[in-house]
């Protein structure tokens, strides 16, 4: 049992606790000291002594040195934050009450199983004959484990690594002047104290206990010349306990990696670094493959042609395993740290000395007497006393939402979230066993949950309710009828009636719903090894079309096995979307003021799918992949049925209460709204159907089909033609790049503007995977090889297109997200009356949609390997050109309506729409 004696001092962060059989607790708080948290004259901070440029150089060195380093070059500007720490010091009296020491000896024993004498190691144990006592001073300068992070926001990062003794020695009283910075447009922030000092003292106690046990083990083994110890029992008492609040300066760099936000912390005083390193998994895979291939070759493990089982087990499997581990190492390391931390907390919860009696009463004493939240509001009022802050009061919190969470009306979004997390953990009903306490906690928990549900999406909402006069005028302007309820009025204002049509209106919608599936089935059924189109279709196309309208032919489209495989594939991707880790990235602010969050794990879903397939194929070979080619028609028909079903389900669900509709999909015409998409963001709880559909079933399904078609050619020819390799490389690169930059899709029209209807569902579940694979399917039926000159020319065309496409998009994204970066400042722009800045130089000064040109050049390079024997492999670049032209016209109309005269001036400066000098 660990006994603690905390000697009281007249500081608000310390509580007198006397240890004994009665375990009584005496609290002595100064009557003239009514501070609500750490006193201003006791609160210290380590100043920022390093420039931001030095921190950036340290960050680059930390992630850039070494052959396997990822060499991160592009990150958002670092935050400058004061991080709160409780610093604990104490005098420790430790007494070894009992222990056994043992020496390992080698003896000969008879083994009845083997019927012979064997040499074994045994340990001779003996009790320690006397007690040993030690007195040590634990100071935070020598023990970083006594510096405990006192908040929640960065708790998952390697934040403890930046705590150093030299930096702590230079702490000064915390004043608002420490928040000043000489860097323009950079503001230093303060992470608030959210963990009580008693909690920090528990962590310090655990650290001291573990360290004393280690020291005692080492002392006994050296004293008695033994090899091991066991049954160690130590009695520890703490004196002169002091818990002091200190702010650490930190530059915090954030990197989005595999859908997660990884942070690197750099001490702003001495540039000490803490953070998870990211490794270049491609180099790891290359070194692993080369090394294992060398080993297997020298040992004769590879069979003829490299297709033996030893090749897969000796080279492929280790390479995949090492690259997988290198890729997911940052994520896995965080999970391991979480498991260790949760295990420590769980073991402490089982320790009655940590939670019962002294500690529970001490926690309650500090909580009742020293309320940090009120202290923070007082300090905020005194340090940042401005006329705007003085105007915030009860009038800005008429419903008491801010008061319920213990924050001021000027609180930021992160402050509101931090306050809610702390209160939710504190008043969660599951923490209480007494029925009355559980009932009281449930009421408080519901109150803070209701307040947070209002403030989490739009903190200004509660403040806006304090303007009844303006609200009354707005209601009078709306002039609702007697039969309209207030909710109906708000819904009509939020979802106005669509008065214009696109895509030819209802007639065009009927055509798309009917004709597009027929077109996909035409490519699936009328293209075969006899020709593209088939020989039968070329000889008598009328009879071929009539035969495909017969009942027997329609029945033949239904393939139960293909349908189960397709639905299982989509369901598997949905499961991966739910269970795989990924950072939640907020989307754009919608009309109702909400900002939905999306989980970024598309890249992880793709790799998990591929690795699972490789694991399955290592024992079966590539033969099972021919299923996709043999059942291509059934898979296409299954995807069509699925797209109809999910479109209909989302359309019917859009009539539910509180749905946010797309501005272009609320015409009232059923077939048009079904086609264009009525609801903007259909969701099942947190599962966003449109965002899931956007990249996963379409793009991942496209590549899976491509790889299956490549396997078919390999099985038939025994090798892959260079044209098939080109197509696979180009399209894999395109898809993987899109999945890697998954966050960029949040600003596209598909997510921000268009509803989710048949057009998006069919396009992503059917159109993309079954028309974009025409090139690979054609090369299976008509394999061909090209010269290396043609090979290089097509490769160069694709690289040129990719360079234009990616660099143009990156330039625009950086201009929007980091307008103060050096590259963004070099760009010229036109300031519009709407507040938007339109780029008029760089790539976007060449044409208004230069990225469309790069995208189309890539699509053309995908079809060139197929030759010119038939136009069908060129369907994608032809269709894509029409799509881009139509999209450009839609964008032009939208911008002309939004910007008015500013758009006319912009068009005069940037004359060409897509192709410079031509169009």
UniProtKB/TrEMBL annotation:
Enzyme Commission number: 1.3.1.70
Q: Which residues form the J domain?
A: 400-478
Question: Region (Disordered) spans which residues?
Answer: 376-404, 467-490
Q: In which pathway does it act?
A: Steroid biosynthesis; zymosterol biosynthesis; zymosterol from lanosterol: step 2/6
| Name of the protein | Delta(14)-sterol reductase ERG24
**GO biological process per UniProt:** ergosterol biosynthetic process
Lineage of this protein's species? Eukaryota, Fungi, Fungi incertae sedis, Mucoromycota, Mucoromycotina
**Record membrane topology:** Multi-pass membrane protein
Q: Where is the protein found, in the record's own terms? A: Membrane
Q: Which family does it belong to?
A: Belongs to the ERG4/ERG24 family.
Annotated GO molecular function terms are: Delta14-sterol reductase activity
Q: Which PROSITE patterns match?
A: DNAJ_2, STEROL_REDUCT_1, STEROL_REDUCT_2
InterPro entries for this protein: DnaJ_domain, ERG24_DHCR-like, J_dom_sf, Sterol_reductase_CS
List residues traversing the bilayer.
284-305, 311-336, 503-524, 561-580, 600-617, 632-652, 717-736, 756-774, 786-805, 862-885
This chain is encoded by the gene named PARPA_06151.1 scaffold 21352
Polar residues bias located where?
381-394
Q: Name the Pfam families on file.
A: DnaJ, ERG4_ERG24
- To which species is this protein native? Parasitella parasitica
Q: Which UniProt keywords apply?
A: Lipid biosynthesis, Lipid metabolism, Membrane, NADP, Oxidoreductase, Steroid biosynthesis, Steroid metabolism, Sterol biosynthesis, Sterol metabolism, Transmembrane, Transmembrane helix
Please give the catalytic activity noted in the UniProt record. Answer: 4,4-dimethyl-5alpha-cholesta-8,24-dien-3beta-ol + NADP(+) = 4,4-dimethyl-5alpha-cholesta-8,14,24-trien-3beta-ol + NADPH + H(+)
Give the GO cellular component terms, alphabetically: endoplasmic reticulum membrane
Instruction: Please state the span of the N-terminal signal peptide per the UniProt entry.
Output: none
Recorded superkingdom: Eukaryota
């Amino acid at each position: 049992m660990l006994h603690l004696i905390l000697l009281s001092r007249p500081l608000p962060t310390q509580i007198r606790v006397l240890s004994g059989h009665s375990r009584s607790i005496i609290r002595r708080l100064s009557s003239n000291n009514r501070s609500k948290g750490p006193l201003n004259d006791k609160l210290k901070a380590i100043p920022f002594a390093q420039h931001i440029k030095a921190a950036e150089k340290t960050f680059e060195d930390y992630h850039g040195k070494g052959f396997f380093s990822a060499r991160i070059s592009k990150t958002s500007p670092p935050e400058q934050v004061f991080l709160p720490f409780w610093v604990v010091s104490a005098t420790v009296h430790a007494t070894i009450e009992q222990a056994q020491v043992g020496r390992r000896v080698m003896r000969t024993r008879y083994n009845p199983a083997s019927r012979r004498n064997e040499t074994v190691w045994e340990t001779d144990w003996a009790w320690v004959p006397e007690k040993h006592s030690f007195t040590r001073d634990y100071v935070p300068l020598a023990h970083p484990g006594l510096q405990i992070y006192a908040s929640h926001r960065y708790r998952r990062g390697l934040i403890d690594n930046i705590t150093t003794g030299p930096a702590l020695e230079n702490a000064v009283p915390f004043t608002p002047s420490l928040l000043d910075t000489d860097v323009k447009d950079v503001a230093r922030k303060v992470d608030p104290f959210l963990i009580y000092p008693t909690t920090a003292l528990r962590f310090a106690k655990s650290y001291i206990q573990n360290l004393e046990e280690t020291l005692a083990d080492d002392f006994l083994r050296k004293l008695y010349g033994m090899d091991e110890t066991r049954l160690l029992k130590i009695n520890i008492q703490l004196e002169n306990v002091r818990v002091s609040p200190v702010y650490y300066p930190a530059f915090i760099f954030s990197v989005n990696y595999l859908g997660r936000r990884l942070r690197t912390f750099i001490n702003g005083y001495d540039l000490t670094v803490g953070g998870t390193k990211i490794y270049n998994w491609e180099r790891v895979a290359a070194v692993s493959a080369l090394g294992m291939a060398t080993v297997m070759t020298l040992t004769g493990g590879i069979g003829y042609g490299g297709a033996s089982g030893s090749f897969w087990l000796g080279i492929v499997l280790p390479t995949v395993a090492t690259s997988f581990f290198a890729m997911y190492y940052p994520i896995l390391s965080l999970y391991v740290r979480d498991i260790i931390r949760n295990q420590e907390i769980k073991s402490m919860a089982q320790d009655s000395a940590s939670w019962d009696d002294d500690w529970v009463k001490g926690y309650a004493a500090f909580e009742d007497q020293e309320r940090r939240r009120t202290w923070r509001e007082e300090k905020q009022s005194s340090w940042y006393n401005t006329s705007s802050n003085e105007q915030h009061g009860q009038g800005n919190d008429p419903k008491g939402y801010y008061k319920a969470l213990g924050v001021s009306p000027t609180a930021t979004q992160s402050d509101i979230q931090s306050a809610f997390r702390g209160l939710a953990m504190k008043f969660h009903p599951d923490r209480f066993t007494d029925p009355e306490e559980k009932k009281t906690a449930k009421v408080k928990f519901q109150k803070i949950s209701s307040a947070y549900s209002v403030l989490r999406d739009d903190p200004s909402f509660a403040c806006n309710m304090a303007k009844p006069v303006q609200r009354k005028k707005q209601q009078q302007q709306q002039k609702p009828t007697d039969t309209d309820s207030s909710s109906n009025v708000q819904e009509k204002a939020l979802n106005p009636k669509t008065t214009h049509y696109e895509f030819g209106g209802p007639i065009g919608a009927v055509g798309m719903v009917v004709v597009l599936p027929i077109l996909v089935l035409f490519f699936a059924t009328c293209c075969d090894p006899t020709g593209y189109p088939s020989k039968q279709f070329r000889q008598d196309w009328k009879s071929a079309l009539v035969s495909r309208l017969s009942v027997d032919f329609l029945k033949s489209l239904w393939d139960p096995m293909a349908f189960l495989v397709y639905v299982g594939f989509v369901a598997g991707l949905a499961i991966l979307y739910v269970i795989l880790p990924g950072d939640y990235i907020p989307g754009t602010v919608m009309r109702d003021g909400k900002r939905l969050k999306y989980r970024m794990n598309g890249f992880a879903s793709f790799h998990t799918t591929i690795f699972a397939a490789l694991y399955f194929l290592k024992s079966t070979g590539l033969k099972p992949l021919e299923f996709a080619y043999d059942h291509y028609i059934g898979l296409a028909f299954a995807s069509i049925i699925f797209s109809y079903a999910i479109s209909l389900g989302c359309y019917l669900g859009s009539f539910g209460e509180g749905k946010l509709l797309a501005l272009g999909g609320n015409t009232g015409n059923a077939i048009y709204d079904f086609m264009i998409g009525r609801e903007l963001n259909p969701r099942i709880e947190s599962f966003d159907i449109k965002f899931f559909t956007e990249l996963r079933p379409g793009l991942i399904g496209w590549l899976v089909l491509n790889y299956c078609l490549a396997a078919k050619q390999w099985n038939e020819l025994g090798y892959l033609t260079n044209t098939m390799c080109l197509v696979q490389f180009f399209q894999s690169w395109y898809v993987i790049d899109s999945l890697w930059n998954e966050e960029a899709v949040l600003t596209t029209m598909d997510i921000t503007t268009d509803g989710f209807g048949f057009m998006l569902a069919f396009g992503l579940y059917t159109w993309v995977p079954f028309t974009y694979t025409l090139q690979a399917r054609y090369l299976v039926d008509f394999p061909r090889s090209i010269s290396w000159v043609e090979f290089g020319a097509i490769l160069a065309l694709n690289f040129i297109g990719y360079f234009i496409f990616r660099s143009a998009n990156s330039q625009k994204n950086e201009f929007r997200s980091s307008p103060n970066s050096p590259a963004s400042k070099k760009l010229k722009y036109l300031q519009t009356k709407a507040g938007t800045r339109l780029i008029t130089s760089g790539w976007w000064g060449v044409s208004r949609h230069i990225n469309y040109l790069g995208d189309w050049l890539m699509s053309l390079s995908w079809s060139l390997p197929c030759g010119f024997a038939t136009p069908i492999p060129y369907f994608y670049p032809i269709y894509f050109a029409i799509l881009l032209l139509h999209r450009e016209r839609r964008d032009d109309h939208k911008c002309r309506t939004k910007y008015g005269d500013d758009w006319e001036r912009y068009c005069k400066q940037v004359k060409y729409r897509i192709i410079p000098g031509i169009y």
